[in-house]
């Protein structure tokens, strides 16, 4: 085996050279994404304990703050953007929630287990799991995707979901909900995001299969497939500059979405409003019609 491929023998791949700016700081993004909940809370998650991975910024921040407004205490996992995470904690606490922050790479199974253990040590229970953390790397040619990048993208986007869900499963009781973040690229494809869109296909299959596995035990599993949403992911290296300049213009609505236009889909699937739904995917994508 060549030197280049030896990385595949490892159980965990560290950040690659392509990632010095990723996933990016929302504090440095202009214009700032809209994360604010748009309506008063109604207690739909009162007393619940929720995990939100990738909860420091973007969609994750909007979900965490909305869940806090709806009465949940929130555990936020993030990679290393401490300024964003601190801000999100302050926003959730302003809504009356208790917050646990955990920095590190959930693609490492030991860290994923330690994070869930910390949640249980803090609150003694877990009711909602939001698997949202992800990364992407644009490449025009499949030959440009290195073994390290390929494994890293799968490690962050889908392996981490397995690791966190495996750690969480013993603590999820009847009535619990899992919501996974997939993408419109799973349905439409993306010529410049071959590895990323492949992971999103895996996430959709994981969501449907996990639903079949758990639905008989009263645990619902669903997913959300956002379209182009204005978050740090694309401007900080997840898309070429020329694409960022016209980000979201190709949607029927002609604009990118905002995180607070996606978060309510996660809330719906996390609470009892969706009690007769499992194995399903919601599509906040600006009007693109896809086979869901």
Automatic annotation (TrEMBL):
Pfam families: adh_short_C2. InterPro entries: NAD(P)-bd_dom_sf (IPR036291), Sc_DH/Rdtase_CS (IPR020904), SDR_fam (IPR002347). Residues 1-35 have a biased composition (Basic and acidic residues). It is an enzyme of class 1 (oxidoreductase). Residues 1-40 are annotated as: Disordered. Keywords: Oxidoreductase. Its EC number is 1.-.-.-. The keyword Oxidoreductase applies. This is General stress protein 39. The gene is ydaD.
